[in-house]
Amino acid sequence: MAAREKFAVVYANTPAEMEQQGIYIVNEKQLTEEQKLFCRDYFFRVISPLLIPLMVRKSMQLPFFER
User: Fold this and answer.
1) Nearest-angstrom CA–CA distance, 67 and 35
2) Is the dihedral of CA 18, 47, 51, 33 positive or negative?
3) How confident is the model at residue 45 (pLDDT cuts 50, 70, 90)?
4) What is the rounded distance in angstroms from the CA atom of residue 50 to the CA atom of residue 25?
5) Measured between alpha carbons, how far is 45 from 31 in angstroms, rounded to an integer?
6) What is the Cα–Cα distance from 21 to 14, expressed in whole angstroms?
7) d(CA 56, CA 62)
8) Coil, helix or strand for 66?
9) What is the tens place of the pLDDT at every residue in 23-33?
10) Neighbour-count burial for 2-24, b at 16+ CB within 10 Å, e otherwise
11) Interatomic CA distance for residues 21 and 27, integer angstroms
């Protein structure tokens, strides 16, 4: 089985396994206003400072990416 196929199988099973542990994936429309404020604040305080812009050109060969 190729790495891509293994990933697909694991990824497909992950949400159900997470729910068995009480962990749920939600989208932004399912959050309360308080949760939205928390997420926005957390993103700007913790995540945003760690992000680095990356310029990608068609001519660049990226590792592990198939075209």
Assistant:
1) 38
2) positive
3) very high
4) 23
5) 19
6) 11
7) 9
8) coil
9) 999 999 999 99
10) eeeeeeeeeeeeeeeeeeeeeee
11) 19
* Residue 49, helix vs strand vs coil: helix
Least trusted range by pLDDT, from 2-6, 17-21, 30-34, 53-57: 53-57
Residue keyed to tokens 């990416």: 65
Joined together, the tokens standing for residue 38 give: 């928390």
Tokens representing 64 are: 């592990």
Both tokens of 21, joined, read 């542990």
Residue 57: how many CB atoms within 10 A of its CB? 5
Q: Give Cα 7 to chain centroid, integer Å.
A: 14
Amino acid identity at 63 = P
